[in-house]
Each structure stands twice: as structure tokens, then as C-alpha cells.
Amino acid sequence: MLKTLSGRFLILTVVFVMLAEVLIFVPSIARFRLEYLTDRMERAQIASLALLGARDMIDEAVEVELLENAGVLNVVLRRDALRQLVLSSDLPGPVTQTVDLRDPSPAILIRDALARFVTPEPEIIRVISEPARGGGVQIEAAIDTGDLHAAMIDYGINILWLSLVISVITSAFLFIAVRRLMVMPVKKLARHMMSFASAPEDARRIIEPSSNVRELREAETALHDLETQLSQSLRQKERLAQLGSAVAKISHDLRNILTTATLLADRMETVDDPTVRRVAPKIVKSLTRAVNLTEGTLAFGKADEAPPALQLLDACVFFEEICEGEQLAVDPDIVRIRHSVPAGLQLRADPEQMHRIIGNLIRNARQAVQATGKPGEIEVIAADAGNCWQVRVTDTGPGLPPRAQENLFQAFQGNVRKGGTGLGLAIASELVRGHGGTLTLEKTGETGTTFLIVLPQQMGVV
């Protein structure tokens, strides 16, 4: 029972109800004692007035009967300045306490009642009160507390049973109410979660908020949003898996085609035309990279991108080669691609992967500049920042729209042009992370866009 919400609530309800009954019992037992003593004093007053009105006709046996009926041992009545012992009997012991009922405070009544409740030994107490209905100035009586203690115990037992009955009834009603209003909706929520977990791609299993309780409806709404996002993500991953499977199937044939193209490009180097001889090596290198890319497609689909083969590169020669190769794809009068790299600068990177990174950034920048319909520039800037190398790719394009910036490096979500897949920046970011570095959007606006690549000079330190 302690492991269930309803069981714990039931136990807490019983405990709190009993605690409330205890808080009620303390003043109740004090009130009971006060009424008990007040009743005895009223009886004592009646007995004393009866004796004073017919003293000559009442013998000693009748006096004893009057005392027994009043439940007192003696009575002292004060009228004006006279204090008179009206009824008396032999006291079984000395008077141990005086109780004044004329104007007691609640704290004193509670204190004396609790003290009497826990003291079973009978004692003789003197009780003082004001006579009822103007029957004198003051009345005193000696009372044996044995009967008082027994009466308080009986009253306490009755209160205990009443408390138990109230606790059981209250707990039962609260248990039913909580089970219906809280426990059952929570269980229903849990069943929805289990149902969705069994088939998360099934949109029909997504929970629809229906609770009238605000907190539960907020939980259902949050769960609905979470399940919707998860279902969409799973469907997207399934499509990506299917796409990866399709790419893997065509990678072998595509590699053969590229290999054939590479062989034909090799023969172009034997042509005497100077332009062909100058372009042919670049075509061969591009085709070689395409072959390597297709061979790595299957591994990429398995989330098994090869780790970078790091080596020191002459940054000036390396970036010049990339810029020249990309420049061949566009008219230099429309887009000019250049680099700004200090002579002698070396950086540590995988040449093939770095070529893919910079190539992706330049192609994105080139498309952005061409979209403006105006001439523009793209520049690759590299520098040594002390503990890291910084490579910037800048352009004079129109900048990135806010929507593209939200998921810039997410595959199939960060596309910056119509019809794009968004894979270029996602692949570039992943390859940079493989180098232990970072790829970030440094700035974008109407004057252009700058991407920043930071590569650590010591592995593990950016």
C-alpha cells in the first residue's frame, strides 16, 4: 500500500484526521471537566439551600444522602460576610488542590484537565465558584477526583471511537475522490504513454488533452507536444534510413562510373592543348575526391565516419588549390574567389575532409552571391590565433534569413536556398567536430556572411 499513490494518501488522511481529532480532544476534555465540576457545584448549592430551608426537619442521614446525590464531601456557602459550613462529612484525606471556577483562563483549564486526565490516583480538591441565580456570594465544595477521572476516561474513550469512525468515513470519501480525480487520470496518462511507447510512429496513439483539471491538462498537453515531436523525429529518421539504404545501393555503381571518368580524365593530360593540360589535373583530383566520397557513403550511413587522418598542411598552397578549383565553376567577373593566408602558415588537418569543409562553405557562399544577380567576392582567411587556427569563409551575399539560422547545422533543416537539402553545413560541422574544433556562424547581414572554423593546435583543446 505504501508504494501506491492512493495507499499513501489514505494513510496520510487517517493520520491528519487523527491529528485534527487530538487538537479537538484537548479543549473538549477541558470543557468536559469544567462542566463536570460546575454540575457538582450546582448540585451542592441545591443541597445546601434545601438544608438551610428545612434544617429542623432533616436529620444526619438525610444530610449524607444530600452530599452523595450532589457528589461532594462538604459544602461551604458564603452569604454577605458570613461563611457557613452547610453540609459536611469526614474527608478521606487532605485537600491537595484548590480549583477556582469563577473566571478561569482557557490555558489553565486545559492544563488542569490534562493533569487530571493523566493522574489516576484519587485526590481531594476544593472547588470554588459563584452560586447560581444569586444564591449567595461564594460556594465551596470538597470533591473526590476518583469519579472525575473515571468520567474523563469514559469521555476520552468515546471521543477516540468517534474519531476513528470519522477518520474511516472521511478517509473512505477522500480515497474515492482522490482515486477518481487524481489516481485514475494519472493511470490513464501512464497507459497512454505505454501505448505510444509500443508504436511511437503511429500518430493515432498520440494523446489528446481531455482532462478538466488544469494541472492534469497541462501535463497532457506537454505529453502531446512531446509525443508529436518524437513521432515526427522518428518518421524523419526512418526516411533518412531509407535514403541511406538507397544511397548505399547506388554507391557501387556510382563509384564505377566515377572511376571510368577518372581514367578518361587521365588521358586528357596527354592532349597538347595548354588549357586542357592545365585543367585536366584538377578534374582528376575532383573525380578522385568524388570516388572517395562515394566509398565513404556507406560508412556515413552507418554513422561510422572515418576519423580524420591529421597531418600538417601548407595553408597557403592548400587554400589556393581549393579556391582555384572552385573558381573554375563560376565566371570570375560574377564571383571572385580568393584567399588571404600568411606565407608559411601551417595547420593540422585531414586534407580530404578539410577540402570538403571549405568546398561546402564556398559553394554555399557562391550560390548566395549568385542569387543577388550582382558581382561579389568570396574570401578564405586563415590565421594563427596562438592556441588555435582560425579559418574564415566570407562572402558579400545578402546574408542568411532568420529561419535558416535557427537550424543552420541540422541535416535537411538548415537549407539556406530553395531546393537545398541542408546537408552541406551539417556535414561540414560534423567533420570539424571530428578535428576537435568548432564551426559557427560568426556574422550575417546585408553586407555578407562569415563562417568561422576554429581548429585546436593541441588535440583536445579548442
From TrEMBL:
It catalyses: ATP + protein L-histidine = ADP + protein N-phospho-L-histidine. The keyword Zinc does not apply. It comes from the Bacteria. Its EC number is 2.7.13.3. One of its GO terms (biological process) is osmosensory signaling via phosphorelay pathway. The keyword Transport does not apply. One of its GO terms (molecular function) is phosphorelay response regulator activity. It is an enzyme of class 2 (transferase). Residues 216-243 form a coiled coil. The chain crosses the membrane at residues 9-30, 159-178. Residues 249-459 form the Histidine kinase domain. Keywords: ATP-binding, Coiled coil, Kinase, Membrane, Nucleotide-binding, Phosphoprotein, Transferase, Transmembrane, Transmembrane helix, Two-component regulatory system. This is histidine kinase. The lineage of its organism: Bacteria, Pseudomonadati, Pseudomonadota, Alphaproteobacteria, Rhodobacterales.
